[in-house]
Task: structure prediction
Amino acid sequence: MVSEKKKESVLAGFKAFLMRGNVVDLAVAVVIGAAFTNIVNSLVKGIISPVIGAIGTKNLDVYKSCIKNPCGIGKDGQPTGVEILWGSVLNATLTFLITAAVVYFLMVLPMAKYLAKQEARRKAKEGVQETMEITELEVLKEIRDALVAQRAGNDGGAPGAPGSRDAF
Result:
């Protein structure tokens, strides 16, 4: 019986974890990111690589350097030597930079501008409300001062004393 309660609490906790907003947002971000990766890879392979290929080769993965000769494929079909595949690193770096630029300029920057405008509106609204509160406070102080002056000017005695004109 205790294990059933523990099972229910674990399942309830798991359900609460899944229903939190940030978990759902993260899941959506991963799915969108996976789809977006295909777009960026196509952009690199279809546009960037051919532009680079105009001065070299279309496939960046073929750029490599041999640091231990002889580099190539042996008679047994196994690679010989030690190669650094810097073309693959260059390709991955270009893909990353393009992805980062697109995410920044199409998502982060517009959202930051939108949030800044919202914050400015909120501050402006608070400033107007604060000004109204200060103005109301000043008006109330003026009314109080006027009443005190009226009591002092109209009545020689203490305010509220018998025979005084103010009957507040």
